[in-house]
Design brief:
The structure holds 2 protein chains of 2 kinds. By secondary structure, chain A is mostly helical. Chain A is 63% helix and 3% strand. Chain A has one domain. In chain B, 74% of the residues lie in helices and 3% in strands. The radius of gyration of chain B is 22 Å and the shape is globular. Classes of the chains: A mainly alpha, B mainly alpha.
Chain lengths: 430, 349
């Protein structure tokens, strides 16, 4: 139609487009890897040596724990990106998977398993599978499975829950789907918050309630522990932190790799097809139910891995942390970066997580010092994230670093062309 | 499909989809029946407690109904789940609290107290209605032709913005406000009834009647119903669609505002994220009644209100009330998405 505002983009061959995407992926991954390694070396060797002004600056603006947290957020945001960005299913309860992943760590790699019966009948429980409990007397009770084994376990448990949550909701239209996922995202944390006395006699302790589960096992570095200078296990000592940062980077890059590979393959293309036109996709023989469930499962898998890693980061699992705001912040990360684009989401997550953990506070301190005011900038966090969502939707729906494909889809109006022309005429645009 | 099978084999057989539908239907009826029996059992064995709780349930039910109406009206007209609707309610609770207590210092019943209360009611309604209309004008209207995800995410963003305003006005924790009536009430036999329940019902019922009148009898209401059915046809008939949608948002917001003021007067506490929780409950009510159906929203509000207080009093207790309500929501979505009074559609919601 001649009346549509945007001219169609010049046609390029499929091979050109793929080649372009490959090249940009290579550039992005090398770039991020270099940044991660530079930061690691900085935290490991340079800053302890240099000290003084530089060290203070980094401790304030980008400490090693802030950097670790940012990388963990990337893991979650990428998991959500698979559900929202790839498959186009709005999930507002992603925090549930974070929580389930965290509690997997609580059950399988901490002394807590021996306290799960309130009548103390499990107190003698002791099980270890290459486990690394903290080296303190008495903490080898409970179940201790190796961190690297718990990761896939938690991922699979979460994937199972993803399917469980997804299955009943997939027949619903998008906005109802959002609501049901939100409902699950509220129910699951509430179960953990109230999970201290379950069962008819209140004997079963699922989650230790508001007290939380702590401490969590350390991360073993075998076989890299043989390298001089690398600790055998990563706990809470200051020397461990740069290595923990590296481990989290490894996990995030695994999820990035997973996202990129799946997107290229059959499943990824089926997701994109469903996102763009469900009816057309099903006519082309894409099995809707199975494909959507796969999106939930893979997204949840990433959440589970992130959940375990986050538990080692804070050295515990606390039920009060898992609130609705987290789901929305994750959504803001995906929207800000550009739905469906792995690199966009990575950058979006890094930026917002930094603002969330240190940026806003430090910025506030600087402003307050300079102007002599005492504004509590932390209070404006909600406003900031809300504004990001609204303004992005109004003015740059495709995100800061969009994919060409997403841009085209989002530029297309939902209603039929003729109807749009009528509405345009009314709005005085024709 | 079933016809074809029937003629081919000579006897009526059910397809897999049909038998699954049947199983789903039966399960939902069994669940409904069990709930009914349990409620009856409690009513017979502990009548006094039951009635006391039921009156509380009426109070919450009326408030949920008011908020649910806003959801259902907006959904009926532009098919948007307005996530920020509950937060308008929260803003209204805070605003009415500031007006009654901070500005006028009214904390005990009396003639001036009640006059100020009516004023606060009006202010809350105008405020919430105005903010909702403004949001429609500035955000939703631009996104009316965008893909579904865009207005939905915008609504979530607006909800966060309202919560930020709530934090600024009310603080980041729970805050207790003095109310006119407090906990006082009267006993009727051995049944306790709070005065607040009476006030809430006395405000809610006229509002609901007014709403019904506007939607069913006035020109504006007719325009609303026409726009809900078919926007383009309504436009061709000379209806100002933009103004009608704005009016719907204003009305929904005003009802949420009234609910907010009544909540603060009958419960006495508020928190910046109250609206999010209550909004979800109200939305569940709207779905229970059949989304888009005004009578359904009111019915759903009362049913959910009563179920919630029954759960808190007799079943799992306060800590689990969200879980119970959301479980109802999820079961509804799966088994009966069209709700109690809604018309079944060929497309699953």
């Amino acid at each position: 139609m001649t009346t549509t505002a945007a001219a169609p983009p010049p046609l390029t061959s499929v091979r050109d487009a793929t080649e372009h995407a490959r090249r940009s992926n290579r550039r992005w991954s090398i770039g991020l890897m270099v940044v991660a390694l530079v930061l690691f070396v900085l935290y490991w060797k340079v800053l302890p040596e240099v000290g003084g002004e530089t060290a203070t600056f980094f401790r304030k603006w980008l400490s090693v724990s802030a950097a670790s947290e940012m990388v963990l957020w990337v893991t979650f945001a990428l998991g959500l990106n698979i559900v929202v960005g790839y498959a186009g299913l709005l999930d507002l309860g992603y925090v549930a998977f974070w929580a389930i992943g965290g509690y997997c760590a609580g059950w399988f790699m901490s002394p807590f398993a021996s306290e799960m019966m309130n009548d103390k009948s499990w107190n003698g429980l002791k099980f270890s599978l290459l486990g690394h409990p903290p080296a303190i007397e008495g903490l080898d009770r409970g179940i201790h499975i190796n961190f690297w084994l718990v990761l896939p376990i938690a991922g699979l448990v979460c994937a199972f829950f993803g399917i469980l949550i997804g299955a009943p909701t997939l027949r619903l239209k998008s906005d109802y789907l959002a609501l049901v996922t939100l409902g699950f995202g509220e129910i699951i944390p509430q179960v953990f918050r109230n999970g201290e006395r379950l069962g008819s006699s209140g004997n079963f302790n699922l989650s230790n309630g508001d007290k939380g589960i702590t401490p969590v096992d350390t991360i073993p570095t075998w076989p890299f522990g043989y390298i001089p200078g690398v600790p055998d296990e990563l706990g809470l000592r200051a020397v461990d932190l740069p290595f923990k940062f590296l481990v989290y980077c490894l996990l995030a890059s695994f999820i990035i790799f997973l996202s990129l590979r799946i997107r290229e393959g059959r499943l990824g293309r089926a997701w994109l097809a469903i996102r763009e036109d469900e009816l057309a996709a099903s006519m082309m023989g894409v099995p809707l139910m199975r494909t959507k469930l796969a999106a939930y499962a893979v997204g949840a898998f990433a959440g589970g891995i992130g959940g375990v890693a986050f538990a080692t980061y804070v050295n515990g699992i606390y039920a009060s942390r898992f609130d609705f705001a987290i789901s929305i912040i994750l959504l803001a990360m995906v929207v800000l970066g550009g739905m469906g684009n792995v690199w966009g989401v990575t950058v979006g997550a890094l930026v917002l997580a930094w603002i969330n953990s240190t940026g806003l506070e430090q910025f506030g301190n600087t402003v307050n010092d300079a102007l002599g005011t005492s504004i509590n900038f932390k209070n404006y966090q909600f406003l900031l994230f809300g504004l990001i969502l609204v303004l992005m939707m109004l003015f740059r729906r495709e995100g800061l670093i969009p994919e060409t494909r997403t841009k085209q889809v989002l530029a297309e109006p939902e209603r039929g062309e003729l109807e749009s022309v009528g509405a345009d005429m009314e709005a005085g645009q024709v | 499909m079933s016809q074809a099978t029937a003629t081919a084999t000579g006897r009526p057989t059910r397809t897999r989809a049909e038998s699954r539908e049947l199983i789903i239907r039966m399960t939902s009826y069994v669940l409904l029946g069990l709930t009914g029996i349990w409620i009856l059992y409690k009513a017979v064995t502990q009548p006094a407690d039951f009635l006391t709780v039921a009156f509380l349930g009426l109070k919450f039910g009326a408030l949920y109904a008011l908020v649910a109406l806003g959801y259902t009206m907006v959904y009926g007209i532009i098919e948007l789940i307005n996530f920020s609707h509950g937060d308008l309610f929260m803003l209204a609770t805070v605003m009415s609290g500031i007006m009654m207590v901070t500005w006028f210092g009214q904390t005990s019943p009396g003639v001036t107290g009640f006059l100020i209360m009516i004023m606060a009611l009006l202010v809350a309604m105008v405020l919430a209605g105005g903010v909702n209309t403004l949001a429609e004008r500035l955000a939703y209207r631009r996104l009316r032709r965008a893909p579904k995800l865009a207005p939905l995410i915008t609504a979530v963003g607006l909800s966060f913005i309202y919560q930020a305003v709530g934090i600024q006005m009310n603080g980041s924790g729970q805050r207790n406000w003095n109310t006119l009536l407090g906990d006082s009430g009267f006993t009727f036999g051995s049944v306790k009834v709070q005065w607040a329940v009476i006030v809430v019902l006395a405000v809610t019922i006229p509002l609901l009647l007014l709403m019904t009148y506007i939607v069913n009898q006035t020109r504006q209401g007719k325009a609303m119903r026409a726009t809900a059915q078919d926007q383009d046809a309504a436009r061709l008939m000379g209806i100002n669609v933009d103004r009608t949608i704005a009016f719907t948002f204003a009305m929904g917001g005003a009802l949420a505002g009234a609910a907010g003021m009544l909540w603060l007067q009958s419960v006495g506490t508020t928190r910046y994220d109250l609206g999010f929780q209550l909004g979800l409950i109200a939305f569940t009510s709207a779905v229970l009644g059949g989304i888009g159906n005004l009578n359904g929203a009111v019915l759903g509000g009362f049913v959910i209100g009563i179920i919630q207080v029954l759960n808190e009093a007799f079943l799992l207790g306060n800590a689990w009330s969200q879980t119970v309500v959301f479980t109802i929501l999820i079961l509804l979505m799966v088994f009966k998405p069209e709700g109690i009074l809604g018309k079944p559609t060929t497309e699953k919601v």
